[in-house]
Specification:
Layout: E1 8-9, E2 15-16, H1 19-29, E3 38-47, E4 50-51, E5 62-66, E6 71-73, E7 82-84, E8 88-97, H2 104-128, H3 133-136, H4 141-152, H5 158-169, H6 176-220
Parallel strand pairs: 3-8
Antiparallel strand pairs: 1-5, 2-8, 3-4, 3-5, 6-7
Length: about 220
Amino acid sequence: IDYKYPWVYICDADERVPDDLRREIEQVVTNPTPECAAYRLRYKNIYLGKWIKYATSYPVWIIRLVQPKKVTYEKRTTNVHPIVDGKIGELKSHFTHYSFNNGLRHWFAKHNFYSDREAVEAVGVRQEGLPTFKQLTQKDPILRRRAIKNFSFFLKGRGLFRFLYSYVLRWGWLDGLAGFHYCAMISMYEYWIELKVKEDEAQWSNATMDLSQRMLKEDEA
């Protein structure tokens, strides 16, 4: 793709760019000698009219401002991570995420779809084995979060663990009733993934066994 400008800001339909972030982006893209090839940002997730700060494990860093000539993307089912050829900077301002603006039914349907893709990804990760200690403790917050995510695919009771982590360890209870609802819904999402992983692995195992039996019969014949 030929881009008209050297910088691209990636923005989902349910996200907004406040004025302070706009000004900061303008400062970066008008710099004739930029130091970085891409920038990561934090976001504020809004539910029931308030910022859910603690229950969302804030801060979560996401690369959104990029020079497209210096950035490529992984081929993954979900949670695609950009591969940056150069230095990655951090912006101070936040973008705002209104993930519940279309209502809970839309959120449930969307996350049911996401859990399908996460389950497929998890099956592949589990076949590769546990991430290393070095991967779990690396300095890059995005890569470290990815490694922790991959590690979580090996845990039993992911839904319960996610609720205790978000609501208790990360102080989600400080977000009030909205924080409780959010932690409960995210935990349910994790539980869906765990159930679908078990189902997918069982189907894969049965298919492999059937193939082995057919090959054995062919050899005997």
